Amino acid sequence: MPDDLIPIGRFSRMSRLSIKALRFYDEQGLLTPARVDPASGYRFYRRGQAGRAEAIRVLRLIDMPVTEIRDLLADDDPELTGKRLSAHRERLRDRLAEQERMLRFLERLIDRGGNVMPYQVTVKEVAANPVAGLRLTASLATIGAVLQQGFGTVAGALGAAGVAPAGPPFVVYHDVIDERTEGEVEICLPVPAGTPVPSGPVYYREVPGGPVASTIHRGPYQEISPAYHVVTGWIEEHGIVAHGAPREIYLNDPQSAGSPEELITELQFPIDRVPPA
Asked: From which domain of life does this come (predicted)?
């Protein structure tokens, strides 16, 4: 065996990457062993691979996705590599700004005893709503990306069919999603009744009408939780029952809103009946 080959255990200590991580990066084509013993399957690395291992370790520490690391390390063009790093730097800046904004929201939430803004609950009858829909699974960490991808998929299907949306987009939350639990969300774009939707994951259905308890949230989507607290509390206080999954209806376009604080979202909870006046 060549003298410069290092067993995976020693290379793990040298690179500060676990054996499990090294095996994963091998499977992903990021860091291929210099030699794999054909009998035992044991992996060996060369000292010269330590630099690539360190680049991978640092890039994962700053949350660059594995697929992007693969593309970045495959580039021979320094200019293209620089552009990839700059794009990730901008994502990190956006994420930091989002985290700082959420910390300010938390401070307001604590200072005001959980009441960030006054919510007025109203009851109204809504008509059945024909939609082009798409069900996806999301976690708390992925919900933003899942919704963005889902709306793009549904809008693309409608565009291919030559159909324009007939109302504001909304999401039906079929499950409670938190940091430990994934759940199903349904992306909905209203369409004219009877609209044919191309075959594939996007389908046509009617979201049932009926009475709903509703409130308006003004501000970033991530700060809507207190509206849920208010509406569900109102439902309990009036002795009625939530009769279906809640819906978030996005009444203005994030692209045209001047800032996240100008976003307007209607939260609707279907209920079994209208309480007496």
From this structure: Bacteria
CB-CB neighbours of 185 under 10 Å: 23
The per-residue pLDDT for 258 is 75
**pTM for the complete prediction?**
0.64
* Mean pLDDT of the 9-30 span: 89
Beta bridge partners of 135: 186
Q: What percent of the chain has pLDDT over 90?
A: 34
Instruction: Tell me how many degrees the CA angle 89-141-72 measures, rounded to the nearest 5.
Output: 35
pLDDT tens-place string over residues 124-146: 999 999 999 999 999 887 888 89
Q: Tell me what the pLDDT averaged over the chain comes to.
A: 86
How far lies 276's CA from each of 146, 209, 237, 273, in Å?
40, 20, 13, 9
For the four alpha carbons of 8, 13, 15 and 17, in that order, the dihedral sign comes to positive
Average pLDDT over residues 183-204: 88
CA distances to 27, 78, 136, 208 from 174, in Å: 35, 47, 10, 14
Identify the three-state secondary structure at position 9.
helix
- Range 158-171 burial, b when 16+ CB lie within 10 A, else e: beeeebebbebbbb
> Distance between the two ends of the chain, CA-based, in angstroms?
86
Backbone φ, ψ for residue 231 (5° rounding): -65, -45
Distance between CA 127 and CA 132 in Å, rounded? 16
